[in-house]
What we know:
The protein is an alpha/beta fold. It has helices spanning 8-16, 46-51, 70-75, 90-100, 115-128, 132-154, 178-184, 203-209, 223-229, 231-234, 243-246, 266-277, and strands at 3-5, 23-25, 43-45, 66-68, 80-83, 106-109, 161-168, 171-173, 188-189, 199-200, 213-216, 250-253, 291-293. It folds into two domains: 3-110, Rossmann fold, CATH 3.40.50; 156-293, Nitrogenase molybdenum iron protein domain (Rossmann fold, 3-Layer(aba) Sandwich), CATH 3.40.50.1980. The protein starts with a strand and ends with a strand.
Amino acid sequence: MRILTLTPAATEIVCALGCGDQLVGRSHGCDHPESVLSLPAVTQPKTAALARDAPFSLHTHLSSVYLVDLEQARALTPDVIMTTVVPGSEDTLQMALADAFKPAPQLINLEQNEVSAVLANITRVSGVLGVPERGAALMLKTDARLKDIYTRAAEIQPKPIVAALQWIDPLMICGNWVPELITMAGGVTLFGRAGHPSFWIDWDDLWAADPDRIVIVACGYTLDEARAALPALTRQPGWATLRAIRDKQVYITDADQFFSRPSPRLAESLEILAEICHPTVFRFGHEGAGWERF
């Protein structure tokens, strides 16, 4: 089977199932495991592509932030394309693929709004790839890691109120699977709701709520990039008066490698949040690589 993955999560699931040798192409964001870097990347960010006047795209069907090199994708002759599209647009994308490819590859649209959906993706992909027993084992292993932390954290009191920021200029609160992970890590998520999209808030909302912890989960940002973006917060009037600042409870994370990828590595994302919420109980060794204190 010839597989083209257009999201890092899809690539990581395929490789975790031991089917990385069936990949023929990837998105520009797919960089884990390292072996996939040898594959051709058929996407690029819209901003970069537009700056170069790139003539290719499947409009906004494949992703709101990617452009796809259609000629290169065709040349790879994929049997399967795995991606994530806006809810309700799957049929439109399937028709676009039918026009663009002869024959049209099978479309696997990965749901990723909740932790349970991520686990279901593992099972679904393993079925498509013909390795359901590997999928069952990987799903159970990932679920066990998540439940172990959840069970241990449930007994810990008090539970810190955590504001997880997906963007900081302007402010955006994390949605989808991140609020659920905060709860599983023994925290209380501020504003965000599990399974619901991320959304914008005003600075005054954050200032009035005065959370115990602020975690920067800037979408697609590495630790270095998140650190460089912090002045957008620190220059805000009243920043120094926040409880999290006074108590030295502001954290930045490598969201690019962890929180932006709803793959089996969500277990590591949960470990990071557990270390942040309850550092005297949980120590997985992610400090300095997956997160750091501001």
